[in-house]
Amino acid sequence: MSVSGGRGTRGRGAARARGAALVLLACLPGLAAVAALGLCAAGVEHAVDRTRTTAAARPAAGHPAPRPPVVPRSAWLGDAARKQPPPRYDDSVHAVFVHHTDTPNDYACADTPAILRGVYQGQTGARDWDDIGYNFVVDRCGTIYEGRAGGIDRAVTGAHTQGFNHRTAGIAALGTFTAGVPVPKALTDAIAAVAAWKLGTTDTDPRGRVRLVSSNGLSRFAAGATATLPALAGHGDGYQTDCPGAALSARLPHIREVAARLQGRP
Predict the structure, then answer these.
(1) CATH for 73-262?
(2) Coil, strand, or helix at residue 169?
(3) How many other CB atoms are found less than 10 A from the CB of residue 64?
(4) In a 3-state reduction of DSSP, which class is residue 233?
(5) Which helix (H) or strand (E) element contains residue 232?
(6) Beta carbons of 100 and 243 less than 8 angstroms apart
(7) pTM above 0.85?
């Protein structure tokens, strides 16, 4: 009897254990799902935290300005483009130099593309440059043209201001603006719009001054010297030249103020 009773007890215990095991196995998918949901929630939370941290570590420019309409170089250069090396780039733009092209002023704005082709051919032909030197050209009607190749939105290294082509943009006014020559408002407004946009990418005040390093001694400063120059400067501020002409140079303070307003500065 004792032996028989022991076997019955052990049998019932084993059955209960198998039942419990089956219940546990049945619950495992639900438990795994709960655990997975917990892990997923934790992962999302960490991802959100990382995103917040990354956003906090990447400050936005404080005074951006809208990009003005720009006519692409393909529209004026067409098949006149010469073979040239790949564009060179800087990391950012901290100053703008204003120029004039030293070409006639009595042009019809519809003729601007043909005039630009002439400037391009003169610089890449007689001067043997690899491309037009200016990043942008503005005509007297206020139309803005892409100059040097490489991308309107990028910090393309120009060939416009000896010693200070790095981390700068060159804007040329189409015409000759020596003393006494009228300077169209549409032209100065367009220069201000380009300058505000480009300088806004680094939160640079167009009315301020910036520190630039001269790349060679052909500028007004020795090679390697640090110069403090206007953020929106005339060509003559960095190089021994009368460019952009006395009349346009006299308008630079006004252009700086307009650019600052376009950046939303008081």
Answers:
(1) 3.40.80.10
(2) strand
(3) 16
(4) strand
(5) strand 232-234
(6) yes
(7) no
